[in-house]
Every structure is written in structure tokens, then in C-alpha cells.
Amino acid sequence: MTNFYFFFYAIALFFSVHSFDRNDPINVLVIWSSLFSIYLVSFRYLRNLTTKQLLYSGILFRVVTIGAIPSLSDDFYRFLWDGYLVSRSISPFAYSPSEFLEQGTPLTEEALFLYRNMNSQIYYSVYPPLLQTLFYLPWLLVHSFFAKVILLQFVLFDFEILNLFLIANDKEKSKNEFWIYAGNPLVIIESISQIHPEPILVFLILISFRLFFAKHFTGFQFIFSLFLQIKMSLVFLVPGGYFSIPPKKRTGFVLIVLLSVAVLAFSLFSKLGNQASSGIGLFFHSFRFHSLFEYLIYFVLSLFGDFTYLSGTIALLTGGVVYLLYLYKRSYDLKEAIFTGFLIMILFSPVIHPWYVLPLFAVLNSKFPYPGVFLVFSIFSGLSYLLYSIQYTFFSEIFFMIEGGSLLACIYGKSCINYFRQKS
Fold this sequence. Notes:
Blueprint: H1 2-17, H2 25-42, H3 51-63, H4 75-87, H5 97-102, H6 109-117, H7 129-141, H8 145-168, H9 175-182, H10 185-193, H11 198-213, H12 217-230, H13 238-244, H14 250-265, H15 272-278, H16 282-285, H17 293-302, H18 311-329, H19 334-348, H20 358-363, H21 371-383, H22 386-389, H23 395-423
């Protein structure tokens, strides 16, 4: 029965990645609800399987998603566009796609296809140089559009295999904690079929842990600096890394992080004004999606006039202060510091796309007392695609309240029930 159920789950994943339509709310609701229902029931069968068998199941689930053209996110069009520019020895940070087109530079039919399908034609690239190398690979190695998609998915699949082995070999993790990452449909679908670079980031985080606990601090510092070359927002985690390493190693840590920042300064931020107005800055003053604590700040600011554009900046600064206070009050355990820092960054971010949360599930461990919260959070992260297709007034507010109430119920529900039982 166990083998049949997991085979059924694999089939469901295969058909799901080929059937998603982000613009159809019924489609999104039915598919995500079905997948998470199958996934939650699968926990009943974990006792019948070894961690090794779960590992191979996780690999199988990812294999069946390869080959689907991403339908939940169109970011991959921009990835390939940036790679096209790099293949022509043009900086992807110098022009927005619309500016590049206005120059009259001849484009291939495939490049025009990418331009027409991306949703960021007027925005500057926000992807650091190391990621640009990944985006360049398809143009170097293959020719057709479909082959380029497959190549990117295979690269991410390779990283996911490594991630699954690293997590499975973590003796601190139970089978349930391993399955929160290995079998989670949000992780499986967003990491490979939708072509998001989070598997690379997860790999770097897991390797940094290995190097740190093996006391290879030079290697740890180098890998940590690469965080910023995959996702620049992870500068948020720098204090956690700094306070976790021995004091004598901190100077080297600061220098190598500054070197990584310098690489960004001379590439991604070579035109700082452009990034501030139509690049990274958009995540501070314009973009908002599925936010949590930032939503509350936005609501408060809306009561005092036209100051809502400050909500993202205030939220992230507040989250930074909260993280620093956490580090000040506690002993420094690297895994706990990185997990907590990432969690705080997500909670206070003005933009929480579904794939942003994947590293949380990879570093989750038994020290966090509410693992069920992350199952609920992953469900609502998948369902957040409804925010794209349902434009009714107050839907985002209703979604926020239902999600917030569900998360609070996971944390406090059991203790509240016990309290009222004692009173009665």
C-alpha cells in the first residue's frame, strides 16, 4: 500500500506541473489542495519506510517534474533573456529589456519571444553575477528553447539531489523533518519545474554548515559570501554568521563579505539610480506580495496619509533590529542563527513569493517547537498564487486573516484547548 501511495503521489505531481494555470483560481485551488492533501496523508506511511527510501522517493518526485514548461512563474523568461545578453558580451545590468530594444540592436526570434513573454520589460536585472553564469549556460550548450528549459531544470535537479543527501545525512533530523523538505509539493514544484535558483542557495547553506562544524572557517567564509551572489537579500544573515564564528576569525569574515559586496557594487549596482528606481529598490517601495508583518505596517501607514510606500523599508529595518536583538540575547549556534535570521527576513519582507520560503524547510530542525507551522505556511504559500488571479476587493485582506489565524492556531491552539479543559 505504501509503495502504491507514493507512486500515486508521483503521478499527481507529473500531471500537476503540466496542468497549472496561474490565472485560473479554480485550477490553482484544486491542484494545490489536492497535492497538499496527498502530501499530508503521506506522513502516515513514513514509519514503513527508511530515510534512504524516502530519499529515493524525493528524487523520483523531482524527476517527474522535469520537462514541464513553467506555468506558475514567468521569471525564467528573464533568466534566459539575461543569459542571451551575456552570450552577446553585453552586461545584463546596463539596460532594461525595453531600453535595449529601443537601441535598435538586431535580436534573434528566440530573444524576441523571451522579451514578449517576460513581465519585467521595464525593470533592470536584479540577479547577481554568479546567477548570470547559470543563465548563460543554456546559450553556450544547447540551441532550442525547450532544450534551454530542460538544461536549467537539470542543473537545479542536480543541486536538489545533493541537498536531499545532505539533509538525509543530518543526524539531528527525524524522518518527519526530512520529509518536510523532501516530500513537500511546494519545494518539489518550485525548485525544479518552475526554475527558481533556491536549490543552489539551499546547497550553499547546507555546505556552509558542514564547513563550519568541521572548523574549516576559511571555506565557510567563502561559501557564506556566495550567499549574496545568489540572493542579495541574504545580506540580512551576515550578523548571524559574524557572531557565530570565533572572534579571531571575524576580521577575515568581514573582509570576504565586503569583497562579495564589492563584486555586486561593480556589477549589479553599477548604475545605482536605475536599481533604486526600477530594480532592487522596487522591493522596498513598490512591490508587495503575500506579506505578513509588513502588511500590518502597511495598514498602519495607510491611516496617516500617503506614506504606504515606506512600509517595505520600515518592515525590513524592523526585522533587522529584531534579528540583532535576538543575536544579542542568545548564545550563538550557527544553524539556529541562520534559521532564525531567514525566518525573520521572510516574516518582515514586503514580498514573499512561494519559492522564497524553500530554504526554511531545509534548515528546520527539532529545536523549533512548532514544525506544523511550516506545513501550514507551505500550504498558504502555494495558495498565495490565488492573489494573482483573484482581484476582488479585500481578498488579500481575507487571505491574510485566514493565514494568520491558521498559523496562530498551530502555535497556540493546543495550549488554549488545554487551558479551557482545565477551567471546565
